Amino acid sequence: MGDNGRTTCRPTGSPPPMPRLAHFALIMCLLAVAAAVVSFVNGSWLGIVWVLLAGITSNMWWYYRRKAQADA
What we know:
Number of helices: 2
Number of strands: 0
Strand content: under 5%
Structural class: mainly alpha
Helix content: 55-70%
Radius of gyration: 18 Å
């Protein structure tokens, strides 16, 4: 009853790997921050949209990372 056939290859104490969606969200967040910086340096107010996008993608990264840790 206690053995469900799962085996783990990770040593104890190591964090679980992030899922693919978390990686994509992190990359998008970094790109949105870079776009916001470039936009503001050029004097465009369009950077506000990039800041908002960075906030959304950072929340997505946090959510998927925490979900992966809870599943592990």
